[in-house]
Amino acid sequence: MTLALALVAGVLLGTSWLTPAAASDRIAASPRIPAPSGLTSTDVSFQGFGGLTLHGTVLSPARSRGRVPGVVLVTGSGAGVPREHLLTEATQFARRGLAVLIYDKRSEGYTDLRRSFSELADDALGAVGALRARPGVDPAKVGLWGLSEGGWVAPLAASRSADVAFVIVVGGNAMSPIRQQVWNETSGLRRAGVSGSLLDHAKRNFARLGADAGLFAEAFFDAEGVLERVRQPLLGIWGEHDLQTPPADNPPRFARALRRGGNTHYTFRFFPNADHGAHVTPDGGLTRGEALAPGYADLVGSWVRDVTSGRLPDADAAAPPAQDHRSTEISPSPWWASGWSQLAAFALFVVAFTAYPLTALVRRVRGRTVRPVTRWARLLAGAGLMAVLGGFVYIFYLMAAGRWPDPGPVLAGRPLPWLVVQGLAVAAVAATVATVAAWWRTRRGTGEAVPAGERVRTGLLLTGGVVFVPWAVYWGLLVP
């Protein structure tokens, strides 16, 4: 059951990454996008990974002198995200003199259980080739713009091809997806007043368990390793109120990785009153407005013109905004905490904690009574089983609740349901100690013979209780 919960959690993690997008089944070519005022609109098709035909639209200035620079927009997470999702950005960038290609994201090979940044990068390079071939576009001045998940994909595509002239990331990450996702989810709980072991142990380890099960795709993607191979100038943009990506943690990581690869041609900017996608937000990032942050589109237009004309920035990084709490590195689980180890521990708990009362029930039905070694054993069986089940049910509920979970009443930073589970865990440990002491006294000899069956079921119960202690510490049940 533990592994099953982890698998479901992996699914939930996979569907909640970053920018909320209209996830759906495979989407056919979108209807033609009418040309906004002052722009032209042209439908295009191109080949992505595996020969998949993808469809898009190019928005360009209606009047331009000579060939213009171009940019391909790579969207955030979700299967089959339609090109209209980025129509606001495409329109504003085109009005700044760029040819902008937006396209329908693939749904083939992209599901709740599977995604490949490598395949998405090949799709983006197919789009770059299509835009480079458009009349009126300067093929030497076509770059990539990536939002959220696209902030991992666009640099990966650029690292593979010199055809990409520049890279822009918005709400991008130079950290692993699992680190970003845990920061995202714990941020929602922190805003509800939660702190302590539920965040530092339980949620982190539950996310790792989902990744270990193979259902958190690209969980440990090496973002910094990719950035080390990016040679193109890079513009990084973050909203001051980005609640999904750590806006202060990521820029230094981008800078370090680029510098390790010998690339100092980067610019980092932060927009006040802006959310994860650099849209205006009226309430500190909780709600996304339609309009782009003031000055954002102007920055993109001027920066692209500069870098494609040979005027490259040199490590131009503004001071990042304040960030309420830091993200933490998350590595794969050690062998003793792996999915199989957790499954084995759970099986032991179920057998050990249920066998004790069940055997007593069977004896009563048969009219047989045997005095137990100690009555503490009953508390161990009940509290241990309830702590294990209650802990996972509550963590799973928080995962299923999405970005804004209701943890219930919070006392001193601990949700009341979590405090109840922790109380059960403490009771189980105390009962384990008391049962061990009673067992030791019995073994030393009390003048009473203990039947073999009683020794077996008590020994099994104690085994479960002893294993429960380090297991409960790992999951934060015995940590403040």
Automatic annotation (TrEMBL):
Residues 1-21 form the signal peptide. GO terms for biological process: proteolysis. The keyword Membrane applies. Gene3D superfamilies: alpha/beta hydrolase. Pfam families: Peptidase_S9 (PF00326). InterPro entries: AB_hydrolase_Est10 (IPR053145), AB_hydrolase_fold (IPR029058), Pept_S9_AS (IPR002471), Peptidase_S9_cat (IPR001375). Keywords: Hydrolase, Membrane, Signal, Transmembrane, Transmembrane helix. PANTHER family: ESTERASE ESTD. This is Alpha/beta hydrolase.
